[in-house]
Amino acid sequence: MNAAISPSVMTLAVAFTLSGLAPALAESMADAANGRYTLQPSGDGVIRLDTRTGTVSSCSNSGAGWACYAVPDERKAMDEEIGRLQVENETLRAQLASREPADTAKIEEALPKSDKQVSPKTAEGGRKIEIPLPSDQDVDRVMSFLERAWRKLIDMANRVQKDVSGKI
User: Fold this and answer.
1) Does the pTM exceed 0.90?
2) Domain limits of the chain?
3) How far apart are the first and last CA of the chain?
4) CA atoms lying within 13 Å on the CB side of residue 165
5) Torsions phi, psi for 163 (to 5 deg)
6) What is the per-residue pLDDT across 40-81, written as a single tens digit (0 to 9) for each?
7) Which end of the chain is more exposed for a tag (fewer CB within 10 A), N or C?
């Protein structure tokens, strides 16, 4: 049986075949031709990734045309800060090593115990540190002062409230 294929069926078959291959073909051509940037839609523009350097840019269409601005690279900033801190750490270690070694004998040997107990009120050199506690009279004077101040504050607030309520 010889059946002739109609031109409309043939056109549909070719269109169907090409429609499936077109995106894959276009994508492979872009990868082969340039392939340096990948674009991802974002808000009012696109995010552009440079596949060679790894830099990310935010591109948007302003009144004058498309413009791309590099997105700050936090990883790069952190790596730079880590490098700076490592150099500073090494410098401090070198400074510490160049100083005289501490007398380690004092630390490694146990201190002899003495029979004399040091009073907590006695500091180095035999000076006494005394902090007198307030007497009951002192506490009563402070309390009465605070009570008077509180009453004056309450009276002042009441006067302000009366003045405001009288004017409104």
Assistant:
1) no
2) 1-35
3) 105
4) 6
5) -65, -40
6) 998 888 999 888 888 889 899 888 888 888 888 788 888 899
7) N
